[in-house]
Write a structure and sequence with these properties.
The complex is a heterodimer. By secondary structure, chain A is α/β, with parallel strands linked by helices. Chain A is 31% helix and 23% strand. In chain A, strands 6-7-8-3-9-10-12-11 form an eight-stranded mixed beta sheet, with helices on both faces. In chain A, a hairpin with a 2-residue loop joins strand 11 and strand 12. The relative contact order of chain A is 0.14. Helix content of chain B is 71%, strand content 0%. Chains A and B meet through helix 2, helix 3, helix 6 and helix 7 of A and helix 1, helix 10 and helix 11 of B.
């Protein structure tokens, strides 16, 4: 397996199970992908398909009962799955930054903005309060908070949602991480603020060339931000490719259904919203064949028999027995 | 506008509107409570009386004066003298110092030990939590007064010892309270965020969990002070307080009661009233603080 291809993150055959009281859920099943330097990779899928679990598995912060069964996670050539807790703590927040969904709850209400943004520096770089504070002001300026030095002594409740998300982002960027994981970074924000935060992401990408794993269920966000897209369904990747490939030359029937279910402004009022019938499978007992088969309009007996393998070109792969025709 | 990319006027307006801090809000609510304000002022007066009073009102609180015992209140001794000739008013000041020092000290010990114990148990959970909280249950199961009598009888009372003894039984309640709060706090996203940043357990507990229990802790601390004053009074009343010539309100009360049949009311009422007023003050302050912090949480 070729690993040191210069990519920031290489995930190979990652399997994560979560043990519940009576069953074991295969939350992430044989997932492989890479993220190149400066690349933004979108990870999309429905709620509960394992997107966030992948993010947590990369940081080795799975919820109770969860564990990585097999596979490898390499960050800049270093294997993360075999590190001990102490070494893993040194990676978190230093080499990998993360931004959460809800900026209202991801900041400590009793700590000032300045000390929260500077905290990773104090943890990882042994920075003094003073240098952490100076750097925090720089970071706040980087994420476009107005009069950053005045914000340092404020508390999170004094800021609006969009400003708070900028603060979380500043904290995530504090140690110049090789990889930024953004887990639904705009979902909790209103539409105009979403737009501003996405604009900020684009600017930061240009300015500091960070690699980003953008986890979202919002196809619109992915279309605007990601260079490549990973489409996930029921714990497996079903389609992987460059963003315009996946969006305009969709092959997998699930991706196709997902894109069709996006309401557009031009669709007439009388037209019902498209939705995918049925529910995602129970991951404690996944169907033997293609996991999307029970909900798929193109399903045949063959789909139920065996799991389809990834096929297609290097730039665009998909796991579907009856793929949509590639339009020229 | 390239630096403040996309930031609207609205964001700035929201920030200004929210500029009124949470603690200030809590303070406002506290100050609106006239009863609590009166209690705080009263306590300030009592503290001044005890600690600054002796500088103004000079009395000998070391040497007994057999020729001046149990004098009625009068111009020479504003509150009379006790059975060995100490000036009662001066003794009330000095005794108050000891009582307040022990009460505040014991409450501080109880809160610090209790908060750390509870936060550690709640944060780590599982077996650590089970063992630590069973220790709390076990100590709580022993009647407090029995434990106090035992501890007081195997040691020679001094301010330090009494602080330790009273603190040692008082930390159980804050430990339980904080452990309960920690169970919910540790699942908060911002606590998770510290893990994600690579922060260790010590940092999470001290910088992120404990500060967020402050509301509960401050309220409990005020009640701890009131309780400690009563406990010390009870211990002294039972003869396990600090030996003379040092004094405290409980000891004075206990001593004065020996003479109640003789009608020496000035040996009973002053320390008794001082204890009641101080305890009531702290209860009012505690109640008001609880309301204030609840408002802060609700509006947050």
């Amino acid at each position: 397996m070729s690993r040191s291809d210069g990519s920031v993150l290489t995930v190979a055959s990652l399997r994560v199970v979560i043990a519940l009281r009576h069953s074991t859920v295969r939350a992430v099943d044989d997932v492989s992908f890479t993220i190149a330097p400066g690349e933004t990779v979108g990870l999309v899928g429905e709620s509960g398909c394992g997107k966030t679990t992948i993010g947590l598995a990369l940081l080795r912060l799975l919820p109770a009962g969860g564990r990585i069964v097999s596979g490898s996670v390499r960050l800049g050539g270093h294997e993360l799955t075999t590190l001990d807790d102490e070494q893993m703590r040194a990676v978190r927040g230093d080499r990998i930054g993360i931004v959460f969904q809800d900026p209202l709850t991801s900041l400590n209400p009793t700590m000032t903005i300045g000390s929260q943004v500077g905290e990773p520096l104090r943890i990882h770089r042994g920075a003094t309060a003073r240098t952490a504070r100076d750097r925090a002001a720089e970071l706040l300026e980087l994420v476009g908070l107005p009069s950053p030095s005045r914000q340092l002594d404020r508390y999170p409740h004094q800021l609006s949602g969009g400003m708070r998300q900028r603060v979380s982002l500043a904290a995530a960027l504090a140690c110049d991480p090789a990889l930024l994981i953004a887990d639904e970074p705009t979902t909790a924000l209103d539409v105009t603020t979403q737009d501003q935060i996405l604009e900020l992401f684009s600017r930061l990408k240009r300015e500091i060339g960070m690699a980003v794993l953008l986890i979202t269920h919002d196809m619109g966000v992915v279309a605007g931000q990601a260079d490549r897209v990973l489409v996930m369904y029921a714990g497996k990747l079903v389609e992987v490719g460059a963003t315009d490939q996946v969006f305009y030359r969709t092959r997998h029937r699930y991706t196709q259904a997902l894109l069709e279910s996006i309401p557009t402004l031009t669709s007439s009022r009388a037209e019902a919203l498209h939705s995918i019938p049925g529910q995602p499978p129970d991951l404690a007992h996944p169907p033997p064949g293609c996991r999307f088969a029970p909900r798929c309009a193109f399903m045949t007996d063959e789909c139920r028999a065996a799991q389809p393998a990834m096929s297609g070109s290097q730039a665009h792969t998909f796991a579907c027995i009856h793929p949509a025709e590639a339009r020229a | 506008m390239s630096t403040a990319i996309g930031l609207t006027e609205r964001d700035a307006a929201v920030a200004e509107a929210a500029a009124e801090g949470g603690l200030r809000l809590a303070a406002d609510v506290f100050l609106e409570n006239k009863l609590a304000l009166a209690a705080a002022v009263t306590f300030a007066v009592i503290a001044l009386f005890c600690f600054v009073g002796p500088l103004v009102y000079h009395t000998d609180q070391v040497h007994t004066n057999i020729s001046q015992t149990t004098r009625h209140p009068g111009s020479a001794h504003l509150l009379g003298t006790d059975d060995v000739g100490y000036d009662e008013l001066g003794r009330l000041m000095v005794g108050g110092q000891t009582s307040l020092e022990i009460a505040l000290g014991a409450a501080a010990v109880a809160v610090v030990v209790g908060v750390l114990w509870g936060a550690i148990a709640g944060f780590f959970g599982g077996i650590v939590d089970a063992v630590m909280m069973r220790v709390v249950d076990a100590v709580l199961a022993i009647p407090a007064l029995f434990l106090l009598l035992f501890l007081a009888s195997i040691t020679t009372a001094s301010v330090g010892i009494l602080i330790a003894v009273v603190g040692l039984i008082a930390w159980l309640v804050p430990a339980r309270l904080v452990r309960g709060e920690t169970l919910s706090l540790r699942t908060r996203e911002y606590v998770q965020a510290v893990r994600v940043m690579g922060g260790g357990p010590l940092r999470i507990i001290l910088r992120h969990i404990v500060p967020n229990t402050i509301g509960t802790v401050i309220v409990n601390a005020t009640f701890q002070i009131a309780d400690a004053i009563l406990v010390v009074a009870a211990l002294s009343f039972l003869g396990l307080g600090i030996p003379p010539p040092s004094a405290n309100w409980g000891g004075m009360l206990s001593n004065g009661l020996n003479y109640s049949y003789a009608g020496y009311w000035w040996l009973v009422y002053p320390p008794g009233v001082a204890i009641v007023i101080t305890v009531v003050c702290f209860n009012f302050i505690g109640d008001a603080l609880r309301d204030a912090f609840e408002v802060r949480l609700r509006r947050r």
